Amino acid sequence: MEEKCEGDNKVDDVMLPGFRFHPTDEELVAFYLRRKIQGRALPIELIKQVDIYKYDPWDLPKFATTGEKEWYFYCPRDRKYRNSARPNRVTGAGFWKATGTDRPIYSSEGTKCIGLKKSLVFYRGRAAKGIKTDWMMHEFRLPSIPADSNPPNKKFLDRTIPPNVLLL
Amino acid sequence: MEEKCEGDNKVDDVMLPGFRFHPTDEELVAFYLRRKIQGRALPIELIKQVDIYKYDPWDLPKFATTGEKEWYFYCPRDRKYRNSARPNRVTGAGFWKATGTDRPIYSSEGTKCIGLKKSLVFYRGRAAKGIKTDWMMHEFRLPSIPADSNPPNKKFLDRTIPPNVLLL
């Protein structure tokens, strides 16, 4: 029996590339960060908790579950820096420095602010003499914990997305 | 029989949001655009062919198969504009204007240029008096068709990604 010829329109049975984990800011704060803070586990550990300041950005991708040029981590907020003059966000080889101001993340269903986003750039070396690199991260946090939500896990966590190699 | 108590670590059977079609530049040119030019059909029509200049950007999302803030289209290249003084990329309500120069897209396996990317902004009104909007598109094309590839479909197509509402 001869195979049916479908000419140029023959459909290949191929895998379609391009589908990946690429959450919106809203999904990151309203689902992943909120659930983490509430201590509600997910079927897959899609985002691992890592103290990212213990590592330089190029050492972080290997800890991530998913990602090619962007990686997602939960990172605990370290209270000791809050009222301290000690430079924050320092790693072995350099430091993370915020760029611009924190931007609000609004719910797509309304004008409610559901989170805040801070963008940071990694500098090699120490403050004042640091050399800017292409490593960026976007840090997400909840704006505040409403009194009525009573989360089981009081530890406040940053949802941190380091590092992202910028395409120059 | 009593249900096993898993305490705070109880795993919810939930859908994990954040998985979507978000191809890399390389996937767009090396797979989707190349196959389109070669006339090789895919099991799903993930990217539709639309003459995008017949529409204003806000009318385009409804034609797309997938996308929330980014939409993907194939758009035929219109040869008549090439040697003409007539303004190119004009729509009913405005026009698309290139911003910056074309950027090469390199294969992740080497330094070979596999495509070119042009970014454009939509302006309301007519040239010189146009008012800039937040609508952007990224246009992808193959750098050239090598003599030995002999594609079945000679029509040269742009892979166009309009429009993308920029988050301000």
From TrEMBL, chains A, B:
Keyword DNA-binding: yes
Database matches in InterPro entries: NAC-dom, NAC_dom_sf
Gene3D superfamilies (UniProt xref): NAC domain
Location in the cell: Nucleus
Occurrences of domain NAC (ranges): 15-163
One of the record's GO cellular component terms: nucleus
Nucleus among keywords: yes
A GO BP annotation: regulation of DNA-templated transcription
Keywords assigned by UniProt, alphabetized: DNA-binding, Nucleus, Transcription, Transcription regulation
One Gene Ontology molecular-function label: DNA binding
Protein name listed in UniProt: NAC domain-containing protein
Lineage: Eukaryota, Viridiplantae, Streptophyta, Embryophyta, Tracheophyta
